[in-house]
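Private note to self, pasted from the team thread so I don't lose it. Backbone tokens:
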């Protein structure tokens, strides 16, 4: 049976955990060869091993998405290993440093760190993807991970601002890239208690969410369930595949109806 991403070469950032790991696994299952990039080499090597165990093809690369040289090297890795670059999924992101922090609770260092990873990282990944796609010819696909926090005024003020910026970059790349066959879209997840994100934001000890967190997260969404990394991976596969050949500039909530509420 043919896969939705047969013959494609993809880079996924933040592939050491959560949405990035689930997407790397599913992209490979659909036939893509995947560069799994993350700031944690150990975790991304685990992801590449899981892909290989499932019969797919992946390489692990340590890359800090804030560092331009790392971003260029991670895209080079796709060309060196797989001959070309078709898909760049700029997914790596960090949460508000203290969950529930209001605007005035953020230090300048908090602001710069959030902007640095969540917005600068997507800027660098998108910029170098576009340069590579144009040099290569034949178009290409950028997918970014935004957030419902960038669509509504709740979910972290500075964090939400970084994601609002990601959404605008996505639209701009879609419009500027269209004459070159370059598409750009974003997935906008709502609360995902099962990824490493909430622990990274200081909630829980990293051993997984407690029942109350899961219940409360799900209760915010009309469909009643928390969002999972796998929900995001399924949306991502569609947007990066040729089935979405005429879909660009879309900010797709993966949110159980939260934004529609
Ligand atoms: N979990 C949620 O509730 C939620 C909701 C909306 C949007 N998101 C977004 O989804 C994306 C994925 O988050 P997740 O829930 O899978 O979180 P996660 O913490 O499980 O995974 C994030 C990964 O990004 C990596 N990373 C962090 N900084 C990096 C850097 N500078 N360079 C490279 N890699 C880096 C981490 O090592 C980690 O492996 C993020 O962009 C996040 O903002 C998450």
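Design output:
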């Amino acid at each position: 049976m043919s896969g939705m991403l047969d013959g494609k070469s993809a880079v996924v950032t933040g592939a050491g955990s959560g949405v990035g790991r689930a997407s790397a696994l599913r992209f490979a299952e659909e036939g893509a060869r995947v560069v799994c990039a993350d700031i944690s080499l150990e975790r991304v090597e685990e992801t590449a091993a899981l892909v290989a165990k499932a019969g797919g093809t992946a390489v692990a690369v340590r890359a800090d998405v804030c560092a331009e040289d790392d971003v260029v090297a991670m895209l080079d890795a796709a060309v060196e290993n797989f001959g070309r670059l078709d898909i760049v999924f700029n997914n790596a992101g960090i949460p508000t440093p203290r969950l529930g922090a209001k605007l005035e609770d953020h230090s300048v260092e908090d602001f710069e760190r959030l902007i640095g990873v969540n917005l600068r990282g997507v800027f660098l990944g998108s910029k170098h993807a576009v340069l590579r796609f144009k040099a290569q010819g034949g178009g290409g696909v950028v997918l970014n991970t935004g957030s419902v926090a960038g669509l509504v005024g709740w979910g972290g003020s500075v964090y939400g601002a970084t994601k609002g910026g990601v959404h605008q970059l996505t639209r701009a790349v879609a419009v500027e890239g269209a004459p070159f066959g370059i598409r750009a879209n974003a997935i906008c997840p709502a609360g995902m208690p099962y990824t490493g994100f909430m622990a990274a934001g200081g909630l829980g000890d990293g051993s997984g969410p407690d029942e109350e967190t899961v219940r409360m997260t799900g209760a915010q969404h009309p469909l009643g369930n928390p969002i999972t990394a796998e929900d995001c991976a399924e949306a991502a596969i569609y947007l990066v595949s040729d089935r979405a050949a005429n879909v660009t500039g879309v900010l797709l909530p993966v949110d159980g109806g939260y934004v529609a509420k």
